[in-house]
Amino acid sequence: DIVMTQSPDSLAVSLGERATINCKSSQSVLSSSNNKNYLAWYQQKPGQPPKLLIYWASTRESGVPDRFSGSGSGTDFTLTFTSLQAEDVAVYYCQHYYIHPPTFGPGTKVEIK
Amino acid sequence: EVQLVESGGGLVQPGGSLRLSCVASGFTFSAYWMSWVRQAPGKGLEWVANIKQDGSEEYYVDSVKGRFTISRDNAKNSLYLQLNSLRAEDTAVYYCARWCDSGSYYAYWGQGTLVTVSS
What we know:
The complex is a heterodimer of chains A (113) and B (119).
Chain A lengths: L3 E4 L2 E4 L5 E7 L13 E6 L6 E5 L3 E2 L7 E6 L2 E6 L8 E7 L6 E2 L3 E5 L1
Parallel strand pairs in A: 2-11
Antiparallel strand pairs in A: 1-3, 3-8, 4-5, 4-9, 5-6, 7-8, 9-10, 9-11
Chain B lengths: L2 E5 L2 E3 L5 E8 L8 E6 L5 E7 L6 E3 L7 E6 L4 E6 L8 E9 L2 E7 L3 E5 L2
Parallel strand pairs in B: 2-11
Antiparallel strand pairs in B: 1-3, 3-8, 4-5, 4-9, 5-6, 7-8, 9-10, 9-11
């Protein structure tokens, strides 16, 4: 199975500041057949189901603010908030969907400093 | 509007059984792979099971193989998860989730149903 790790475990950021979450997979999730990275990012607020933010490592889901961006390839990925807003307080998860089973990272909790 | 509504959770003793249901609406249910994903209290997300559009393929996380069974009834737009031989570590919110068109990432989730395994 592909193991997903995230860093940091938690992050406190001032409003309006930039923030970065890292995700690493134990093996590459880049497909040589279509040159796509099988990596998604989710946001989860307390008491709610996860919300898809990014797929194919860098494609923003419809309706997701452009302050969220995803980057990376192969085994190393990043979710970046260009300007943290109060409503961004949540736990963020990465997930690979390259092979069975799909697995999630342990999550990164983002708080306001 | 896509909607997924789970039901069937509750308190069950270790070794007991439950059947979870998820009713889908707002899309052609029979056209999509479906999944169950769970989240233990205060913990992260864990994929549990997948089922193909016609029910001909099923996949499970190792920890539930032989105990849980995923199924679907396309005529009823419904997804199910039969949970047998339940253990304390199965305590979690169970989410029904729909695959996207191009892969097993999830744009649509239900609100979840809580399963508590305790004596």
